[in-house]
Amino acid sequence: MDVAEVKAELKKLRAEIKYHNKKYYDDDAPEISDFEYDNLMNRLKEIEKNFPEFITATSPTQTVGGSAKRTAGKLVAHDVPMLSLQDVFSKDDVENFVEDILKIFPDAEFVVEEKIDGLSLALKYRDGNLFQAITRGDGSIGEDVTENAKVIGDVVQNLVDAPKYFEIRGEVYMTKKNFDKVNRRQEMLGLKIFANPRNCAAGTLRQLDSRIVAERNLSMFVFNLQKVEGEKILSHTDAYEFMKKNCIKIIRAYEVCKNFSEVWRAIEKIAERRENLEYDIDGAVVKVNNFSDREKLGATSKFPRWAVAYKYPPEEKETILRKIELSVGRTGRITPTAIFDAIFLNGTKVERATLHNEDFIKSLDIRIGDTIKVYKSGEIIPKVRGVVRRGENSVEFNFPENCPVCGHKIIREKNSADFRCTNPNCAAQIENHLLNFCSRNAMDIKGLGETSIPKLIEENFIKNIADIYKLKNFRAELIEKKIFGREKATENILSAIEESKKNNPAKLLTGLGIFGVGSAAAKDLIKNFGGIEEISVASVEDLEKVSDIGEVTAKNIFEFFSDAENKKILAELKNLGLNLKSEVVEIESKLSGKIFVLTGRLEKFTRDEATKKIEELGGAVKNSVSKKTDFLVAGEDAGSKLTKAQELGIKILSESDFENLLAQ
Questions:
Q1: CA separation for the pair 258, 241 (Å, rounded)
Q2: Spatial strand order in the sheet of 631-634
Q3: Is the Cβ–Cβ distance between 372 and 386 less than 8 Å?
Q4: What's the whole-number mean pLDDT along residues 119-143?
Q5: Rounded distance, CA 119 to CA 172, Å?
Q6: 115 is catalytic
Q7: Residues 437-467: tens digit of each pLDDT
Q8: Strands 281-288 and 316-328, how do they pair?
Q9: Spatial separation of the C-alpha atoms in residues 430 and 335, rounded to whole Å
Q10: Are 174 and 219 in contact (CB under 8 A)?
Q11: Choosing from 115, 287, 613, 641, which is the catalytic residue?
Q12: 599: helix, coil or strand?
């Protein structure tokens, strides 16, 4: 390679790695696997080793991967830098590390422990009381997430045996079980699902609302003593013993080793049990035990010299694709899954892997009967790498025109690679449809939720939303089967169902589950047409005249009300006494017709309360800032919406300004 080629490749690699660092550390949304990222980084290291004159201070090899950002709290400086670990990928690399340490300290001990795949967090205690929790950020500056940390069950807030000052570092993570629960809820609410537990844990810890953090049940392991005053602790294992006495949850099953063979055996033991762990790990860490030895070894600008992280190699195997199976999710999204001859990856039997969508299948030109290569992304999720050999009688796969569950028409969403079943009453979607119908933004029926609705479906009490209003006819059976609990609870829920019949028709329209019609759109539609029956006979052209109702949503509404099954259910709801007609009250105020956007954290109002105040005075609340926006109400920690509003010259209201406007 000539100098120009070297510089060009360095520039490209550094830009690519920085992009993926941002996606992983800051956005919690990685686009490539750890293995693919490591290959990029190793290539960069190789070039810089051969051409050291081109190493820069800002190269990814010289800096910590993440950056500090404002989400849940303010930015603060670390007392002790939170560095990354040097990754190694072979047995020889581990042996070289151990032998190099033993040359300097012949009696050195090594601690081998699991490398948890989560988000690093420093916990600071003064006189035994937790007073600050800071994310790693860029290693020098992190984000104060103390209030969120306090709702994590594993975080000890008061020490039994309290030094004057005590700072520890750990990894916040999410168990596989809790991750599945969160994603099921995300899917149920029609929100984006998380790619893996690490992303979910990182995104959760940075939430503005600590109640969301508490709901998601994060966990934490502590893996290092950062700083202590008022207590003499000489080694990593001594620190662990001290932490145990204070009920601090530390890394499990660590081993103390004297030489390379013991270290390597400990690494192999972790590999043997990792598939059965309730949490994800992305390697094994080897650390020098003695703190005095660590201090003498020191650190580079990025890594401590006294520890390395061994990354387990990804395993890939060939197999034959036998069929492509379609499944319908609770939101109607149709996902293709590869079914292939069983193989074993990292000790686990694998027979299926997601193919994501039609575009993914076509991009790899995967056909039934082909020999494909399968691997585990992040050593957890089976994925198809590509086609190895074309099968003799391979068959091209095409998406059908109808839903594999209910037979209704399926559509490809605009600007998306996803296909979706258009029938909210599809058996695959019914639970999600009912939960949406009963949710706070829709009919707001308290007591009908994640616990009771699945039972009602299982016992055949409800098959569609109209059946909810027929439950009063089965009062005795509901009590006998304890669907809602005791008699009093049953009476309360049946009363709540009856009371919901009086709701504004916008809430009913929201609950119908028409794709693209949320609570804001439903309110606009009712305001323009006056009632659901009027909307049900409107043309696509008339629907498009409503603010923020585009061509796609207008067609979705038209097709929904053209469907015979939906017509039948709407007629049932009317006969059951639900309110389909709005009692229009014209409100004359300074807010009439004005469009608001809310951003940041308000002290005196929840988002729902602020929205209700605006709508009561004739205004409307939208999710995104545009030229049509009249006011942006900016609370604490306002983000990109504030920046966009400033660029567009939109009037910015503080919470105090907003209160004054409401009072006027």
A1: 19
A2: 620-622, 595-599, 631-634, 651-653
A3: yes
A4: 93
A5: 5
A6: yes
A7: 999 889 999 989 888 998 999 899 999 999 9
A8: unpaired
A9: 17
A10: yes
A11: 115
A12: strand
